[in-house]
Design a protein that fits this description.
The structure is a single chain. With about 475 residues, this protein is of the alpha/beta class. It has two domains: about 90 residues, uronate isomerase, domain 2, chain A (Orthogonal Bundle), CATH 1.10.2020.10; about 325 residues, Metal-dependent hydrolases (TIM Barrel, Alpha-Beta Barrel), CATH 3.20.20.140. The protein is built from 20 helices and ten strands. It has a five-stranded parallel sheet, with helices on one face. A three-stranded parallel sheet has the order 1-2-3. A two-stranded antiparallel ribbon has the order 7-8. Helix 1 crosses helix 19.
Length: about 475
């Protein structure tokens, strides 16, 4: 019997152990998609206790606490931080089988040197031990990032964000980790969603020019893309919860946009046309600048109306969506590829039924001398666990090139979540090591080591080329729309 989460955790054979220890373990991290706060990074936030570092905003844990019968008062309510921590400690033993059980103990072990199992009995001592460490400057936000061997952090930023903390971080020469903005224009695509007009007004305000028609809107988007680029941004991200595409002309998009500006709802067909033309337009801008475009698909958000009204979005009431993606996604990618304007693209789905669909689609749009130009993104959100990660990698390996995979990201709001990269790397090594042990691939450590280092770090380093980013002087400029 193996010990709980010992040095061979998730590594089931000698080849896997060798691959992990010699090729994956010490690779740096490129966190190319996360939800960390640039403000907290700039201000080098100190956490007052483990609850603030661990439970604030973590809807992964909140869902499990609710499933364990914990009252909302001890999750998002007014209970004290100690009471909330104790409620989480009560829940942890019940999470066996969920990856959060392993992540919880991996974070305690790697960041705080704590090997005890967290439960109601051990919780008071662990509370004191961790809080004592968190009070030290060596446990500030920046130190936690550096402790995790992170080279690049890409936050998620709205086009209307001021980016003031990215500007300050760019001018800060002491940190040594690149913190770069990612362009997330979802609110500008959801033309029928409440708040669309207010968002357009905010975009006009931050850009400094009026937006009274679609041409001005596109100009404002391009202007903000240029500002993001000047601050090192090289990645965009789109939440395409419902995948839709239909051919549309600019004139049609202009008319639909004008209808929305007048305060009218647009039809579903009009929404499809507006989104399709705007997404294609944005893709062309990303391609011009050499950006990587990301599509996150098939999340069904805010499914509990009562709790959405009480707590708002991103509080643990989302689920997988089971719609179709193949035809619309292919047509969207093809609309860009026809004009040789398809940027490097990463595609994720929250529903694992799409694994082989995505793995096959990306193969139709590779090329241009770029290894893995179109990527099947790592297992995401509900799939971010042992079976989900392995299923995603097996689908990619069976249909495409696992060896060119850009690997793991955190997609997290927690500064302690970087241990998920270790979890992922152990699984990669165990998968490949198992193939060796079964005689399915040769025991060629030079080749396999290169592949493991690639998936762990080097593929992403080459793909995103963040190391080549030169922080140009900040300047707000409007760029003419073609």
């Amino acid at each position: 019997m193996k010990k709980f989460m010992d040095e061979t955790f998730l590594l089931s054979n000698e080849t896997a152990i060798h691959l992990y220890n010699n090729f994956a373990k010490h690779m740096p991290i490129i966190d190319y998609h996360c939800h960390l706060s640039p403000k907290e990074i700039y201000e080098n936030k100190m956490f007052k206790n483990i609850t603030e570092a661990w439970l604030y905003g973590d809807h992964y844990k909140w869902r499990l606490m609710r499933s364990n019968g914990i009252e909302e008062e001890y999750i998002t309510g007014n209970a004290s931080d100690y009471e909330k921590f104790m409620a989480w400690a009560k829940t942890v033993p019940m999470t066996i089988g969920n990856p959060i059980y392993n992540w919880t103990h991996l974070e305690l072990k790697r960041f705080f040197g704590i090997d005890e199992i967290l439960n109601e009995k051990s919780a008071p001592v662990i509370w004191e031990k961790v809080n004592t460490l968190l009070s030290k400057k060596s446990y500030s936000v920046r130190e936690l990032i550096k402790r995790s061997n992170v080279e690049v952090v890409c936050t998620t930023d709205d086009p209307t964000d001021s980016l003031e903390y990215h500007l300050k971080l760019r001018e800060d020469r002491d940190f040594g980790v690149k913190v770069l903005p990612s362009f997330r224009p979802d609110k500008g695509l959801e033309i029928n969603r409440d708040g669309f007009l207010q968002w357009i007004e905010k975009l006009a305000e931050v850009n400094g020019d009026a937006i009274t028609n679609y041409e001005q809107y596109l100009t404002a988007l391009v202007s903000r893309i240029e500002v993001f680029h000047s601050l090192g941004g090289r990645v965009s991200d789109h939440a395409l919860d419902v995948m839709m595409y239909t051919e549309a002309s600019k004139e049609e998009a202009e008319q639909i946009f004008a209808k929305a500006l007048d305060g009218n709802r647009v039809s579903l067909e009009e929404e499809r046309k507006y989104k399709s033309y705007t997404l294609t337009f944005l893709g062309k801008q990303y391609a011009k600048l050499g950006w990587v475009m990301q599509y996150h698909m098939h999340a069904l958000r805010n499914t509990n109306t009562r709790m959405f009204k009480q707590l708002g979005p991103d509080t643990g009431f989302d689920s997988m969506y089971d719609g179709q993606i193949a035809e619309s996604l292919c047509r969207l990618l093809d609309s860009l590829d026809r004009e040789d304007a398809l940027p490097k693209t990463i595609i994720y789905s929250l529903n694992p039924k799409d694994n082989y669909v995505i793995a096959s689609i990306i193969g139709s749009f590779q090329g241009g001398g770029i290894p893995g130009k179109i990527q099947f993104g790592t297992a995401w959100w509900f799939n971010d666990q042992k079976d989900g990660m392995l299923d995603q990698m097996k689908a990619l390996a069976n249909v495409g090139l696992l060896s060119r995979f850009v690997g793991m990201l955190t997609d997290s709001r927690s500064f302690l979540s970087y241990t998920r990269h270790e979890y992922f790397r152990r699984l990669v090594c165990d998968l490949v090591g198992g193939w060796v042990e079964n005689g399915e691939v040769p025991n060629d450590m030079e080749l396999l080591g290169q592949i493991i280092k690639g998936i762990s770090y080097e593929n992403a380093n080459e793909y995103f080329s963040f190391h080549t980013v030169q922080m140009s002087p900040y300047s707000k400029q409007n760029v003419a729309v073609e």
